[in-house]
């Protein structure tokens, strides 16, 4: 307490309270600096300047098409009235409070109240909420639409096994653009075979407007008969290049149930499809109705088989990267240890260079290294191994070196007293103390590398991640769910194994 009173006496205000308040109205925080509260003044200046700059930037994004500043504010207020009004009110309140606080800081019995910093927190929280586009209403509103795909991810095992498929179906040709060529003939009906026809037999594909909104194409009335009764039937579309895909309506794949006679009537909107500029002449595309039924015994499905193969690839990627990382990190760690490299300016220079390189490599995420490695050696697990090895060497080199710096100097001094060389000192005084932390760090890094192996596949680094991102892009959520489950199972098993190894050797 006595020391604090002495410090308060030493730091005196060089201006009276009203002057400090007026000065802070023109330069926020300057009054606090003149009153002796340097940190408080600079914090207020940075907070007001930063929040005002972020607010102006956000207003510009909300009204980027407006020209002058006032028009931008009015447009931003029209789009986000609560956000703009709240931030303006908080900034004005902080500005006025800053002046009152400056006047208050000149008094000897001044107290650092928290209210001014509560306003700062409110401003930055509001800016963060708006900049990160948090929307709880949208989250809850769209939850029902997200439940079906999420349920497939959480319970994907229907795709793990399958039976041989039997497909029955029929199709009809459609001319793109009525008047662009001769209408395709009406499909010929064969007794006992599935049959489908379209009315009309020509139309326009769906397209996108300037705002990337779908403009619906022609509605085709599909009539079918001769199919299996009370059976799910899928609609497929084949474009003029022979590419086959399932069209969607209202976000769902087009499918329906046939009636008791095996017939159906269904309205299909012609899907969105680009026609290549090089296409010449009439463009005929095809709509097909298919019924896929399972026959025969259960067999392992493609998603499960591919997932198992990629999961094994992921585990070995992590293992190989850990092995190479340990091999290269051990010698590097000795060069990055201050207590071993502080004997001359040459060794200290080596120490600083090694530390700098390790920091740079470790600062770059494995995903970035994977992108670089893909450019270097191409897509595949080898690129992933290179990326993980680079990061492992940097991470383990730092951990190993810090462990070396914290060893007990007593054995080192005892060995040196016998006249041992530098290499003998390291071998008999340093290495025995390093084995337990080295084993612990190495196992931990193996665990990290296996986890990271599931991610770097997203950028082409091989492993389960590469397969997972393909399933997600194809909206095959059951197959993606199998991959997610095996990632979780593998990580849990590895965590148990690494814990057992640490318990035995550390």
Provide keyphrases for this structure.
single chain, 506 residues, alpha+beta, Immunoglobulin-like, six-stranded mixed sheet, 18 helices, 59% helix, disordered N terminus
SSE order and pairing:
Layout: H1 2-10, H2 17-26, H3 30-34, H4 38-62, H5 69-79, H6 81-105, H7 115-131, H8 136-141, H9 143-154, E1 161-176, E2 195-199, E3 202-203, E4 207-208, E5 214-215, E6 219-225, E7 232-238, E8 244-245, E9 248-249, E10 252-253, E11 255-257, E12 264-269, E13 283-300, H10 302-335, H11 338-341, H12 345-363, H13 366-377, H14 381-405, H15 409-417, H16 422-456, H17 464-473, H18 477-505
Parallel strand pairs: 1-3
Antiparallel strand pairs: 1-13, 2-6, 4-5, 6-12, 7-8, 7-11, 7-13, 9-10
Helix fraction by DSSP (H/I, runs of at least 4) = 55-70%
N-to-C CA distance: 48 Å
Broad shape: flat
**Residue-averaged pLDDT:** 84
Quaternary structure type: single chain
Count of helical stretches = 18
CATH topology of the largest domain: MetI-like fold
Rg (CA only): 35 Å
Give me the secondary-structure category: alpha+beta
Let me know the CATH homologous superfamily of the largest domain. Answer: MetI-like
Count every beta strand, where a strand is a DSSP E run of 2 or more residues.
13
β-strand percent reads: 5-15%
CATH C-level class of the largest domain: Mainly Alpha
Architecture of the largest domain in CATH? Orthogonal Bundle
Biggest sheet, in brief?
A: 6 strands, mixed
pLDDT < 50 stretches? 1-10
Count of the separate structural domains:
3
């Amino acid at each position: 307490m006595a020391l604090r009173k002495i410090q308060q006496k030493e730091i005196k205000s060089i201006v009276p309270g009203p002057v400090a308040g007026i000065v802070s109205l023109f330069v926020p925080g300057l009054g606090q600096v003149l009153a002796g509260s340097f940190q408080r003044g600079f914090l207020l200046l940075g907070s007001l300047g930063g929040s005002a700059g972020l607010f102006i930037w956000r207003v510009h994004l909300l009204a980027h098409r407006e020209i002058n500043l006032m028009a931008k504010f009015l447009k931003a207020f029209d789009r986000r009235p609560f956000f703009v009004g709240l931030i303006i009110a908080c900034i004005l309140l902080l500005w006025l409070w800053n002046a009152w606080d400056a006047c208050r800081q000149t008094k000897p019995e001044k107290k650092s109240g928290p209210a001014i910093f509560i306003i700062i927190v409110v401003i930055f929280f509001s800016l963060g909420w708006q900049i990160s586009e948090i929307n709880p209403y949208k989250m809850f509103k769209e939850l029902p639409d997200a439940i079906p795909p999420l349920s497939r991810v959480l319970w994907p095992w229907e795709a793990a096994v399958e039976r041989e498929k039997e497909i029955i179906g029929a199709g009809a040709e459609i001319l793109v653009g009525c008047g662009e060529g001769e209408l395709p003939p009406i499909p010929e009906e064969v007794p006992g075979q599935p049959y489908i026809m379209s009315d009309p037999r020509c139309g326009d594909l769906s397209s996108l407007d300037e705002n990337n909104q779908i403009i619906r194409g022609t509605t085709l009335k599909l009539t079918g008969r001769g199919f299996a009764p009370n059976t799910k039937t899928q609609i497929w579309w084949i474009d003029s290049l022979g590419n086959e895909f399932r069209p969607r309506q209202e976000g769902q794949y087009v499918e329906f149930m046939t009636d008791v006679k095996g017939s159906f009537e269904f309205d299909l909107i012609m899907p969105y499809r680009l026609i290549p500029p090089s296409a010449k002449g009439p463009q005929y595309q095809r709509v097909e109705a298919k019924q896929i039924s399972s026959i025969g015994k259960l067999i392992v499905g493609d998603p499960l088989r591919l997932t198992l193969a990629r999961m094994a690839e992921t585990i070995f990627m992590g293992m190989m990267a850990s092995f190479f990382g340990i091999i290269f990190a051990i010698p590097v760690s000795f060069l990055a240890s201050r207590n071993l490299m502080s004997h001359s300016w040459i060794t200290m220079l080596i120490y600083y260079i090694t530390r700098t390189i390790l920091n740079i490599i470790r600062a770059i995420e494995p995903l970035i290294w994977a992108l670089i490695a893909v450019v270097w050696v191409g897509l595949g697990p080898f690129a992933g191994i290179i990326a993980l090895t680079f990061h492992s060497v940097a991470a383990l080199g730092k951990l190993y070196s810090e462990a070396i710096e914290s060893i007990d100097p007593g054995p080192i001094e005892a060995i040196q007293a016998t006249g041992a060389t530098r290499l003998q000192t390291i071998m008999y005084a340093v290495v025995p103390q390093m084995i337990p932390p080295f084993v612990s760090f190495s196992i931990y890094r193996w665990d990290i590398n296996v986890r990271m192996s599931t991610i770097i596949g997203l950028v082409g680094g091989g492993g389960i991640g590469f397969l997972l991102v393909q399933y997600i892009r194809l909206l095959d959520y059951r197959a993606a769910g199998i991959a997610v489950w095996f990632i979780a199972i593998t990580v849990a098993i590895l965590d148990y194994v690494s814990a057992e190894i640490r318990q035995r050797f550390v």
